[in-house]
Amino acid sequence: MIVKSLIILVFMASLTGIYMMGHRSGYNQATVKYEQRIQAKDNEIEAKNQKVERALMAVKRHAAKKITQVEQHFIPIEREVVRYVSKKEPTHCQSDYSEWMQLHNQAASGLSETDPRGRLSHDTATGKIGNH
Predict the structure, then answer these.
(1) What residues form the membrane-spanning segments (predicted)?
(2) Is the CA virtual torsion 68, 73, 79, 82 positive or negative?
(3) 5, 89, 112, 127: which could form a disulfide with 106 (CB 3.0–4.6 Å)?
(4) Cα atoms in the Cβ-side hemisphere of radius 13 Å centred on 79
(5) pLDDT at position 66, please?
């Protein structure tokens, strides 16, 4: 009876061992397949990213060419505008050097101090500067 029990025990242990080895082997194979699928998806995503990156670089190069073209077109125009604006036009009006304008300019500049006799101390119309 002990021999029978031992044989059954060895048989059950070997069946359990075979089952565990099969399970472990299947688990490892499933893990490898899953990792291969993940790696394939990662490679696909990386390929898409590289494709997008190449397209983006092409767009950036095209934009840089356009910027260069804009600079080449607009810098001469800016020079022409500066030349046109800085050109002095002849004016038909003469400067107003009347006494009223000089008084106005003195009042605006804060130099309209009068001396004790009531004269402006900075009267450039008469050529008198200072207290006279």
Answers:
(1) 6-22
(2) negative
(3) 112
(4) 5
(5) 82
Q: Which residues are CB-contacts of 113 (< 8 A; sequence separation ≥ 6)? A: 120, 121, 122
pLDDT beneath 70: ranges in the chain: 70-75, 87, 89-97, 110-132
Q: Are 93 and 86 in contact (CB under 8 A)?
A: no
What one-character-per-residue DSSP string does the chain give?
A: -HHHHHHHHHHHHHHHHHHHHHHHHHHHHHHHHHHHHHHHHHHHHHHHHHHHHHHHHHHHHHHHHHHHHHHHHHHHHHHHHHHHHHSPPPPSSPP---HHHHHHHHHHHT---B-TTS-BTEETTTTEES--
